[in-house]
Amino acid sequence: MTPGSNGTADNEPQTTAEKFDDEHYPAYTMGRAAELLNTSANFLRSLDEANLIEPQRSAGGHRRYSRYQLRLAARVRALVDQGTGLDAACRIVTLEDQLQEARALNARMTPPPTSEEPHPPLQGV
Fold first, then answer.
1. CB pairs under 8 A, 24+ apart, for 67-73?
2. I want to staple 79 with a disulfide (CB 3.0 to 4.6 A). Which of 31, 72, 89, 95 is the partner?
3. Is 103 or 116 the better-scoring residue by pLDDT?
4. How buried is 75 (Cβ within 10 angstroms: 0-12 exposed, 13-18 middle, 19+ buried)?
């Protein structure tokens, strides 16, 4: 569920300002991500094992998370905190995102309403 390495289509290096705006830029270490989510590093590892998120790796092999990935993790964490199993929570988040994408695609493909009625009104009814 994670886009390419730096979120750009042609893999050109990003400026510092672009990195701040890029929700897919892997800016957070595992420790910082766990702190922000008020969870453990093991929870983040379990999301990787469940194939919900695939953190990028630094040159030293350390996991790095993007804001987008942290939002996914926070959504799963909320479901888990409500008693949903981890695998089910990951599946729910995945399906919610797929539904949102399908609705957006449907909205783009549906022609705008016209001012004309598709059928003239019945006379005398």
1. 67/23, 67/24, 67/25, 67/27, 67/28, 68/2, 68/23, 68/24, 69/2, 69/26, 69/33, 70/28, 70/33, 70/36, 70/37, 72/1, 72/47, 73/33, 73/37, 73/39, 73/43, 73/44, 73/47
2. 89
3. 103
4. middle
Sequential DSSP letters for 76-99: HHHHHHTT--HHHHHHHHHHHHHH
Q: How many other C-beta atoms are found inside a 10 Å radius of the C-beta of residue 40?
A: 11
The answer to whether the CB of 42 falls within 8 A of the CB of 48 is no
Q: What is the dihedral of CA 121, 123, 124, 125, to 10 degrees?
A: -30
Instruction: Place 5 in a pLDDT band, splitting at 50, 70 and 90.
Output: very low
- Is the CB of residue 17 less than 8 Å from the CB of residue 59? no
Q: Taking the complete model, does pTM exceed 0.70, yes or no?
A: yes
**78-111: per-residue pLDDT in tens?**
999 999 999 999 999 999 999 999 999 998 998 7
